[in-house]
Design a protein that fits this description.
Layout lengths: L1 H18 L17 E6 L6 H15 L3 E6 L4 H13 L4 E4 L7 H9 L3 E5 L11 E5 L1 H16 L10 E5 L7 H20 L2 E3 L10 H7 L6 H13 L9 E3 L3 H12 L10 E2 L6 H9 L5 E3 L2 H16 L11 E2 L17 E5 L2 E3 L6 H4 L5 H6 L4
Parallel strand pairs: 1-2, 1-3, 3-4, 4-5, 5-12, 6-7, 6-8, 8-9
Antiparallel strand pairs: 10-13, 11-12
Helix pairs in contact: 2-11, 3-4, 5-6, 8-9
Bound molecules: beta-D-galactopyranose.
C-alpha cells in the first residue's frame, strides 16, 4: 500500500515535470489563475545558491499572489534562451533572469519586443539596452571583504619587506560581470601592501580586472571547480614550487573548496593551509570555516535578494515610475553606477549589503534561515 503510493507519487511528479517542459516546478500555483505570470530563469545548479535563489523567488512571487514558473539553464546559455522563449510564449508579464553569459541578450530583446519587463537578477545582463532594472549585492564590497579577510588572516599588517607574505589569485568566470567587481574590490585592499613590498603575488598578478590578459589567466570559466583545482595543482608544482603560500584569493566557496582540496594533497600544506577566502556561505564551506580549513566567506542572503527582486517586480507590474526597494540602495547614490553599466546603457541597479563571515560568526547564515536544517545535519553544523 505504502509502496504503491510512493510509485504513484513518483509517476505524478515525473508527469508534471514532463508537462512543464523539464522545469523544476509546474506552472500551476496556489494563486488564482487570473494573476500575472512571473517567469524565473536561473543559470546553473553547480553552485548551490542558484537552486536556493530560484526556489525563494518562486515562493516570494506566489506569496504576493503571482503565478510563477521556474526554469534553470544548467550552465547552458542556448538552453536558457529557449527557456526564456517558452516563458514568453506562456505569457509571462515579467522575467527575473540570472544570466550565464551575454548570449542571453537576444532573448532579452525578444522580451522587450513583447513589452515584457526584465529584472537582471544578481548578474548584470551585458551588451543589452533592452531592459531597465538590475538587483544584486554590492559586489565591489564583496571583494573588499575578501581582501580584508585575507589581510587579517595572514596578519599582513605585521609583515615586512624582508619577510613578505605570498598570495596567489583566482577570479570567477569572465562571462560574469560580478567577477570583475569582486576582483577589483579585493585588489583595492591588497594593492597597497604589494606596493609596500610586504605582499608578493605568485603566478599571474593583475592589479585590476582591466589588466585583461593577466585577468584572463586567473579567471575560472563558468565558475567550474575542476578548472580551479587543476590550476591550483599546476601552480603548486609550477610557479609556487619554491615558496610557501600564505593565502589564496578565491572568489567563491565552490572554488575555495576545490583550491583547498588541491592544497591538502600537497605535503607542504599538510600542517598549515594557506588562508583562503570565499563567498556564498555554502554549508560545506561553513563546516570548513568552523574547522579552520577555510578562513572566511561572504554571506549574501539570497532569500532577502529574492524578496527584494519580487518587491521590485510587483512595483514594475503596477506601473510605479521610480520603484524603491527596502534594504537596497541605488548604485548611483553611492558612486557605483558602473555596477549598472551594461555596455549599452546604465540600468537602475539596486544593491544589498553582503556580510563578512569568519570563525567568529559562522552560525549567522544558519540563524538567518539561509542554511536548511537538512544542510545543518549533513554538514555537522550543529
Ligand atoms: C556570481 C555570484 C556569486 C557566485 C557565482 C557562481 O554571479 O554573484 O555569488 O554564486 O556567481 O555562481
Amino acid at each position: 500500500m505504502k509502496k504503491s503510493l510512493v510509485v504513484l507519487l513518483a509517476l505524478l511528479t515525473a508527469a508534471s515535470l514532463f508537462a512543464s517542459g523539464g522545469s523544476q516546478s509546474g506552472g500551476s500555483s496556489s494563486a488564482s489563475s487570473g494573476s500575472a505570470l512571473i517567469g524565473i530563469a536561473m543559470p546553473e545548479t553547480t553552485v548551490l545558491r542558484w537552486v536556493k535563489d530560484g526556489n525563494s523567488l518562486k515562493s516570494e512571487a506566489e506569496k504576493r499572489g503571482y503565478r510563477a514558473e521556474l526554469q534553470n539553464g544548467n550552465g547552458d546559455q542556448v538552453l536558457q534562451n529557449q527557456q526564456i522563449g517558452n516563458l514568453l510564449t506562456q505569457g509571462a508579464k515579467l522575467l527575473v533572469v540570472g544570466q550565464l553569459n551575454d548570449g542571453v541578450a537576444s532573448a532579452i530583446s525578444d522580451a522587450a519586443r513583447d513589452k515584457v519587463a526584465v529584472i537582471a537578477y544578481d548578474r548584470i545582463i551585458q551588451n543589452s539596452a533592452d531592459y531597465d532594472y538590475y538587483i544584486t549585492f554590492n559586489n565591489f564590497k564583496v571583494g573588499q571583504l575578501q581582501g580584508q579577510g585575507l589581510v587579517k588572516g595572514m596578519n599582513l599588517d605585521a609583515a615586512t619587506a624582508a619577510n613578505p607574505k605570498y598570495i596567489t589569485y583566482f577570479a570567477g568566470s569572465p562571462t560574469d560581470g560580478n567577477a570583475f567587481f569582486f576582483f577589483d574590490g579585493a585588489t583595492s585592499v591588497l594593492n597597497p601592501y604589494i606596493e609596500k613590498g610586504v605582499l608578493k603575488v605568485v603566478g599571474p598578478a593583475p592589479k585590476t580586472s582591466k589588466d585583461t590578459a593577466e585577468f584572463q589567466r586567473i579567471a575560472t570559466e563558468g565558475w567550474l571547480p575542476n578548472i580551479a583545482k587543476n590550476r591550483m595543482e599546476n601552480l603548486l608544482t609550477g610557479d609556487a614550487r619554491n615558496v610557501t603560500l600564505d593565502a589564496v584569493l578565491a572568489p567563491n566557496d565552490t572554488l575555495a573548496r576545490a583550491i583547498i582540496e588541491a592544497c591538502l594533497a600537497d605535503a607542504k600544506y599538510a600542517r598549515k593551509l594557506p588562508v583562503v577566502s570565499g563567498q556564498d556561505a555554502e554549508a560545506a564551506s561553513l563546516a570548513m570555516i568552523k574547522s579552520g580549513q577555510q578562513y572566511m566567506t561572504v554571506f549574501k542572503d539570497t532569500g532577502k535578494l529574492a524578496e527584494a527582486a519580487i518587491i521590485l517586480a510587483d512595483q514594475i507590474l503596477k506601473g510605479v515610475a521610480n520603484p524603491t526597494v527596502p534594504g537596497a540602495v541605488l548604485a548611483s547614490s553611492i558612486g557605483l553606477e558602473s555596477i549598472g553599466d551594461t555596455g549599452k546603457k546604465v540600468v537602475k541597479a539596486y544593491l544589498l549589503d553582503p556580510i563578512n563571515i569568519t570563525q567568529d560568526n559562522w552560525k549567522e547564515p544558519i540563524t538567518a534561515g539561509f542554511i536548511t536544517p537538512d544542510e545543518v545535519a549533513a554538514n555537522g553544523l550543529q
